[in-house]
Amino acid sequence: SDMGLKDYYKNYFPVGVAVGPRNLAGPEAEFIIKQFNSLTPENAMKMGPIHPQENQYFWRDADSIVNFAQHHGLRVRGHNLCWHEQTPNWIFKDSLGHQVTKAVLLKRLHDHIQTVVSRYKGKIYAWDVVNEAIADDKTQFLRNSPWYQICGEDFIAKAFEYAHEADPKAVLFYNDYNTERPEKLERIYRLLKKLIDAKVPINAVGLQAHWSVYEPSATELRNTIEKFASLGLKVQITELDVSIYPWEKERRELRPGEKGEYTPELEQKQTAKYKEVFDVFRQYKKDITGVTFWNISDRYTWLDTYPVAGRKNFPLLFDTNLQPKKAFYEVTNFKK
Ligand code: G3I
């Protein structure tokens, strides 16, 4: 058919995809334009890749994504401004290799955000300002990252203030994973409420949605959306994929016999999970302002090497030949 995902969902929300520069030429480029109307750079705008040295920015990859989007009328979500991963080596250290002070680190964060956000002002409509600041350990509140060790909690509010100063019209997000797990939901809620009470310019929350055929349940997802919406925040699904394996983040070894076989039973489970979550997304269209997939098709997914290498994953709506899977037909089969 001539209809892409974005067309089925035109009365609901933009449908996006995470890309790198290599996806923007050849058959994949055509495919992106047909299916999606929003792009997120998978890696190109993260602090390490885009700001490798203190006074040196690397714009080529990020620019190529933004230019492609402008040319074809797609939106861009900026990803991301402050995270504990993919940070450049220099950011936390002075020239002697000692840890910098809070004042120096906040100044660097300010310069970074000011430079990156203003470069794309008017071309990037939304930014993931702070990514994954909540701890994985449920007995902790914030993640014990260098940002936190050096600045305490303040870096979060500051990052939002700097982004707002650089582009007052950009929609500013806090973005995280496992947002549907009740104990993490509580802690994220607590952080967001604190920011809002302190009048920090935050508009929305991103549910990364690195899900699996086993979780979350529709009820957990509804609770999550309602809880964030109750704070007056918009919600986006920012990094959607549905792993065929249960999530065990700390795994480093393949289990014996585990080769990554995509059985009909697993595909059926996955199709059902995709249908279930898209039914919820449509129900909450007043709160949900975008749904973005983390990668284009099962040909390439970050889950092929994470959390364990050596097993293939098949987490997306299109197969390794860019053909729609059962789940695609299921999520596009609804009364418009
Ligand atoms: O570019 C270098 C290359 O020069 C080097 O030779 C090679 C050797 O390891 O690494 C390449 O960098 C890799 C980079 O992806 C680009 O391919 C990094 O090792 C690798 O760690 C990095 O992984 C990315 C990951 O974020 C970083 O933590 C994934 O592609 C990307 O999909 C993933 O995305 C994150 C979101 O930003 C935030 N939410 C979770 C999501 C999944 O982890």
From TrEMBL:
EC number: 3.2.1.8
InterPro entries cross-referenced by the UniProt entry: GH, GH10, GH10_AS, GH10_dom
Gene3D superfamilies found in the cross-reference section: Glycosidases (3.20.20.80)
Known catalytic reactions: Endohydrolysis of (1->4)-beta-D-xylosidic linkages in xylans
Active-site positions on this chain: E239
GH10 domain span: 1-334
Keywords for the protein's UniProt record, in alphabetical order: Carbohydrate metabolism, Glycosidase, Hydrolase, Polysaccharide degradation, Xylan degradation
Molecular function terms from GO: endo-1,4-beta-xylanase activity
Single Gene Ontology BP annotation: xylan catabolic process
Top-level taxon of the source organism: Bacteria
Higher taxonomy: Bacteria, Pseudomonadati, Bacteroidota, Sphingobacteriia, Sphingobacteriales
Membership in a protein family: Belongs to the glycosyl hydrolase 10 (cellulase F) family.
Enzyme class: hydrolase
Organism of provenance: Mucilaginibacter robiniae
Name by which UniProt lists this protein: Beta-xylanase
